[in-house]
Design goal:
The protein has 298 residues and is α/β, with parallel strands linked by helices. It has two domains: 6-18 and 140-240, Periplasmic binding protein-like II (D-Maltodextrin-Binding Protein, domain 2, 3-Layer(aba) Sandwich); 34-138 and 245-285, D-Maltodextrin-Binding Protein, domain 2. 33% of the residues lie in helices and 23% in strands. The chain is built from eleven helices and 13 strands. Strands 5-1-6-13-7 form a five-stranded mixed sheet. A five-stranded mixed sheet has the order 10-9-11-8-12, with helices on both faces. The protein has a three-stranded antiparallel sheet with strand order 2-3-4. Strand 3 and strand 4 form a beta hairpin. Helix 4 crosses helix 10 (254-270) and helix 4 packs antiparallel against helix 11 (272-279). The longest helix is centred in the last third of the chain and has 17 residues, at 254-270. It starts with 5 loop residues before the first helix and ends in a 19-residue tail after the last helix. InterPro entries: Solute-binding_3/MltF_N.
């Protein structure tokens, strides 16, 4: 079931997203050592070249991958933003990350956005409608309050309250687990939907949900910035498997897909990619090669 409580939403606002503390100073990778590669730049589609900007869709609410920061609190920063900036610089383009609701991004590829750079988990269902270029390893983690006061058990969480972000891989798995609970005669999982993962994590931090599940990088980042309020739990079952995140491109544009893959592999080979991941403290999620539509267990 899904339920949203307006009073709790007000509490979230007052809490100031304590689980994902606002970064006072935007962290940005220095692109001074990233040069234009003419052979790659020459392959930029005419429409993008004329515009001069590589446009990406992102919810910009999934730190450390992408989130809004800076003096105005509206400047996109994060791993994905730096990867996008480096790709654009290599192609002699500017980079723009447009903030959008997560579920709306993939359907708008090719019309509103050139690419989707939002830590998308690569799944077979998604690959049936868009192309992906893999750029990071990924794993799932649960986030609970420190000490796990509600006794949340990743192996049996029937009847618990879980904060979720609709349209994600995690929602799909939690729905399946909830259906299995009901089939076994146990209470369903109560799912509280939030448009941003920061809100879901904050709901857990203020005691409005037992847990939330998200990508390992985001889950660990939330714990590190929670001031001891949160901790991680390792999933069991389907969500315990590791997979890949990918940059999404419309299914109808194989040339742009290949160009993004070739550009990203250039950044891997030159060490720029590794430096970005090192700066953000996520080297354990780095990959050796960017692949187009890789095999996935999901």
């Amino acid at each position: 079931m899904y339920r949203s409580n307006p009073k709790c939403r007000a509490a979230l606002s007052a809490a100031g997203l304590l689980a994902m503390s606002t970064v006072s100073e935007a962290e940005v990778y220095d692109l001074s050592n990233v040069g234009v590669v003419q052979d790659l730049a020459a392959r930029v589609p005419a429409e993008i070249r004329e515009r001069g900007v590589l446009v990406s869709g992102s919810d910009n609410a999934y730190a450390p991958w992408e989130y809004l920061s800076g003096d105005d609190g509206q400047t996109p920063v994060g791993i994905d933003i730096d990867i996008g900036r480096a790709i654009a610089r290599t192609l002699d383009l500017e980079f723009e990350s447009r903030t959008a609701a997560f579920p709306s991004i993939l359907p708008a590829l090719g019309s509103m956005y050139d690419i989707g750079l939002n830590a998308f988990s690569i799944t077979n269902e998604r690959m049936s409608v868009v192309n992906f270029v893999s750029y990071s390893d990924t794993q799932s983690l649960w986030v609970v309050r420190s000490g796990n006061p509600t006794g949340f058990d990743p192996g049996d969480y029937c009847g618990t309250t879980v904060a979720i972000m609709p349209g994600t891989y995690y929602e799909t798995n939690i729905v399946a687990d909830s259906e299995a609970c009901v089939a076994a005669g146990k209470p369903a999982v109560e799912m509280l939907p939030f448009s941003a993962q920061t809100e879901a994590i904050t709901r857990v931090a203020v005691g409005g949900a037992d847990a939330t599940a998200t990508g390992g990088g985001t889950a660990a980042y939330a714990v590190a910035r929670s001031g001891g309020r949160l901790e991680n739990l390792v999933p069991v079952g389907a969500m315990s498997r590791r997979g890949l995140n990918g940059i999404a491109i419309t299914k109808s544009d194989d040339e742009l897909t290949q160009l993004i893959a070739d550009t990203l592999n250039h950044l891997i080979d030159t060490g720029v990619y590794g430096e970005i991941f090192e700066m953000w403290g996520v080297t354990h999620f780095a990959v050796d090669e960017a692949l187009i539509n890789p095999e996935t267990p999901f």
